[in-house]
Amino acid sequence: MFTQNDLKQFQTKGIDIKTIEQQIDNFKSGFPFIKLVRPAVPGDGIVCFPVSEADKLLVFYNKYAGEYEILKFVPASGAASRMFKTLFEFREACLKIKNADQIDFNNNEFNAAGQFFTHIKKFAFYEDLKQVMAENGLKIKECIDQKDYVSVIDYLLEDTGLGYASLPKALLKFHRYNDGSRLALEEHLVEGADYGQNKEGRVAIHFTVSPEHADRVIEEINKVKEKYEELFEVIYELTFSIQKSSTDTIAVDAKNKPFRNDDDSIVFRPGGHGALIENLNDREGEVIFIKNIDNIVPDRLKEQTYRFKRVIGGYLFELRDTIFSYLEKLEDGNISDNELKKVIAFAAEKLCISPGPDFGEMSKIEKVDFLFTKLNRPIRICGMVKNEGEPGGGPFWVKNSEGEVSLQIVESSQIDLSDASQKEIFGKSTHFNPVDLVCYVRNYKGEQFDLREYVDPETGFISKKSKDGRELKAQELPGLWNGAMADWITVFVEVPVITFNPVKTVNDLLRKEHQPA
């Protein structure tokens, strides 16, 4: 199947041929559906803290955070082009309409565009757009009054203007303030300064960026870094990485043969956000907060975000201390029956670790080995918000091929919705995954876990794409907070819905949560 040129191509990308062969086998056999047992809900998989308990955890975090190496990890490599899908479609429609008077924003097809142009002055990037158009002899108000919407869209999206369609979300202006507007990445600098400081006032933030935008991201951060260091009296330690080419996946045709370019080279595609487990694994953090680039709010609404970052951080510290104390006793091997019962109860009640039906038949030493293995893993506390209709993954109890039940974040694409019972379980889910995680990635001896060892390879995803007018099949790696963390100790905690305000479309920036008071 593969030529010498193919093998050279694999070598250049740093991909082992066995990995390629496994990916092709995945295309042939497909990935198995996740087996849902029941949704995770408050009291059964989701922890809900009363105010008094949340206050204690916040104090606990504040007391001990300085003793840890804290890192804020921000996946920020995705392009913003999908944010502007409705504007692209509206522009195409405008170009086909000969008489501009035919453009009616009351038409359902144009509702989103109508909202955009009606409230265009409310966007944080408005002044920049107005300026770049003026530099080219155009007045934005006149263009809109004359229904020349195409020019406005062109200057917003194309490289002749602001070039927003080809930029990552990190480099888009999200929020307006009295002293100017902030890029999305700036808001993460502000956030990090609040809950990410160590005792020396160092704030470590890591951004994953795409190769083509790396220089621009660094340039923009350097413009504002000193400003925020002075404002918050901190020192930023900012690092960046790109998705490794070795995590790209092979594309195939309808017959599961390698999809080739005109020059006979094989087409590879990015492996999705699951590839970032490699980037995360390369970090030397101890406590790692993970949050997407677009899930940010203006300063006036940040208080609850700060509070619950500290609450879940405090809970992580609390669980970590108990886990480590039990691991030391389990490793010693002379643990009493009474202590063993305490470990079993803690694992079940606090960590949702289900031993399985054979556990009762195990000898004491087998139980000790089982518990040691289950407790000696990376830990993640995942904030969960009440589901208000947002698309995406949710928290479930899941059974694996070995019959073990565990908590997992599951996407709808992983579920066999043609199975009535699975569809019913999926429909009963009450909460949503906002990608709000705090992780502990060292073992009880202070050594870094190899996070790649805790990935469930059976949780990848196959999709249909096209290239040069030909259909192809693409494969995504197990998602970063789905299958890539499937074998972590996982705890779900309810957090307020105000902590989840993603920007998926440009008009999301018009929501009150993203506007000045």
Q: What would you report as the Rg, rounded to the nearest angstrom?
A: 25 Å
Query: Could you estimate the helical fraction of the residues in percent?
Result: 25-40%
Unreliable stretches (pLDDT < 50, length at least 5) are: none
DSSP E strands, number: 19
Structural class: alpha/beta
Largest sheet: 10 strands, mixed
Query: How much of the sequence is in beta strands?
Result: 15-25%
Tell me what you see in this structure:
This protein has 517 residues and is an alpha/beta fold. It contains 15 helices and 19 strands. The strands form five sheets. Strands 2, 3, 4, 7, 8, 11, 12, 15, 16 and 19 form a ten-stranded mixed beta sheet that branches. Helix 9 packs across helix 10 (214-232), helix 12 runs antiparallel to helix 14 and helix 13 packs parallel to helix 14. The longest helix is centred in the middle third of the chain and has 31 residues, at 302-332. The radius of gyration is 25 Å and the shape is globular.
